[in-house]
Structure formats: C-alpha cells, structure tokens
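Archive entry. Fields below.
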Amino acid sequence: MTNTATVVACSDCGVFWYIEHDRPACNAEGHTHAEFQVHVHLSAVMLPDGTEVNAASFGARDPYTRERPPDFGLYFDPKWQPPWPYETYAWPDFGVPSDVVSLFSSLDSLLGRARRGERVELGCLGGHGRTGTALACLAILAGCPRADAVGWVRANYCSHAVETAEQESLPLALHV
Ligand SMILES: [Zn+2]
Ligand SMILES: [Zn+2]
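PREDICTED_STRUCTURE:
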C-alpha cells in the first residue's frame, strides 16, 4: 500500500511539515513555501526467493498503526521508536553507512527472521533512499544478481527507491 501525503516546505527556514497533520512550522510573511506530494509507504515486498519483508516510511501521524504489527523491525533513522522489538542502524539520510559490513550482517539476520516466518519491517523516513538501498541488498541476499539489484527494487517496490549514486553503488559492495 502506498499513500501520498502533502508536504509544505519553507525554503527560507529549511523546515517542512505535513499539511494534513502538522501545525505549519513557518508562518513568516514573505517566505517561499512550496507544496509537494510524498509517498507514505507501508509496502509488502516479495524478494526474489519468495521471502516477504515490509518497507515503511515514517508517517507523520500514527507511525506505528499497523493491521498486524511486525515481530521485528530494522530502522535507519533514530525517529523510529516502535512498541515492537526493533534495532536502529545509524545511516545518514542521502548517504551510506560507515560500517557496511555490520549493515550487511544486520540485513542478513533480518532476512533470516523473515525466512523463519517472522513478520519483519524496515524503514527510514521517506522510505526511498536508505530503505530502497537496504531492499537492494536484501534482494541480492535472496538471489538477485548484484548488478540488477537497484533496478529490481525500482521495479518491485518504488521507482523512487535508491536516491544517490553512492547509494546505487552500495549493493555492489555486497559479497554473498
Ligand atoms: Zn520560513
Ligand atoms: Zn515511493
């Protein structure tokens, strides 16, 4: 399921807010405000070997409302503090993590949980850059050729997934 939300950004203050849920973060006269649509993902993704994982954006309101809560979550942004068991992994927005080896081992253990029948979730904020890159790595661990992984995620999850050239090259470093 992919919903969209409207975000307003003030380019003078460098702040943004969700128009439906938040109070305006800037009311200053004369500031330039722009509205844009963003995806709010809560998407089931079937990996190439048939294992299912769930990918989530951090929704502005009720970020933890689920039809069925996950058994375990792996999140790449410290905003996530869900009521179910989880781990957060330090990964700067629009960047790549410094310790790639430990990222791959976290993803490998997440995949192991999913294969054992646990309901697992991963997420960042928008659900595209870091989550998309992590999904590309999971696809490789599940049998996708490394060179095809980013294209696979864009075709099977969201065309906006994986945001920077640095993120695109991260799955290529994964040895399986
Ligand atoms: Zn402003
Ligand atoms: Zn999307």
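CURATOR_NOTE: The pocket of zinc ion (ligand 2) is lined by residues 2, 39, 41, 128, 158, 160 (CB under 6 Å).
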